[in-house]
Design goal:
Length: about 250
Amino acid sequence: MNPNDPSRSPAATSRTTASRGLQPNLAQALEPFGFALRGGFKPLPTEAIPPLPDGTEAVTVLMVGNSGPAMWQAFSESQEATDGQPHPLNRWTRRTVDAIATSVGALALYPFDAQPAWPFQRWAARCEPVHASPLGLLIHPQYGLWHAYRAAIVLGADLALPPVPTGASPCQSCFDQPCLRTCPVAAFSASGYQVETCASFLEKPEGADCLQRGCLARRACPVGVNFQPSPAQNGFHMQAFLRAAQSK
Ligand code: B12
């Protein structure tokens, strides 16, 4: 640690000391819901991250995400999963993460609802070794394409963040690129993602496999196959995507 670093002023140091244990405590509180802390970043003043409920400026942002079956299991047991109202996963996420953030005086931001959307993918790339895949989704060295971001927790504490490990994207050494060759209607190409082509295929009987078991192009990726969600979860996300695309 450089003692001349202005961010290590006595005030900053005492904020850091007081907040020691905050990350493990948050990780522990998030865990029963299948959420995990996925690194963090220090926002720049130009990023216009809103202040905390008590007016304190944002100093550290921690990313909350999920991979594997735990979140789906927890969500499936929630009231939102069966109340028949729109956007059950988003409502459940907001209820659970807001409660955790509020308990430590923090503010939670979400990848949904905000207009314009908070740039979660750009934030994530500052926090963990993820890279843009040819599908537009970020690829993670362990989880492959089977992970998502659920929230960002904004804190006034100057938390120590570990350096982000560096490494090449797994896509760089994937010469076959099955993700770009598998979509039955070629919705993904080097020129981008044709959302309408994808959505209109999902509405047809031929699109039932993608709609009920998850995007075929995403399922073709050889990385992180063990983290692929159950057909029920994959189908849930695809149906939510189709509803969103239809409402445009
Ligand atoms: C709008 C949006 C969509 C739109 C448009 C995507 C597009 N063509 O750009 C639609 C509705 C089509 C969409 C679909 C899906 N999305 Co979406 N989407 C978003 C959302 C809400 C905002 C993206 C945005 O505009 N960002 C604004 C810019 C300024 O932020 P940015 O980080 O700098 O921008 C990046 C993205 O635009 C990205 N990008 C570019 N092209 C594409 C193409 C696709 C398919 C995606 C997903 C992203 C993407 O590259 C930019 C640079 O990093 C984000 C959540 C968020 N707040 O970030 C989720 C998000 C990008 N989506 C996500 C996912 C998982 C999906 C789906 C796979 C959902 C599903 N069905 O399971 C589908 C894809 C359909 C399929 N065939 O599987 C995840 C991606 C996670 C990851 N591993 O990277 C996010 C981050 C949400 C989350 N909860 O984690 N999505």
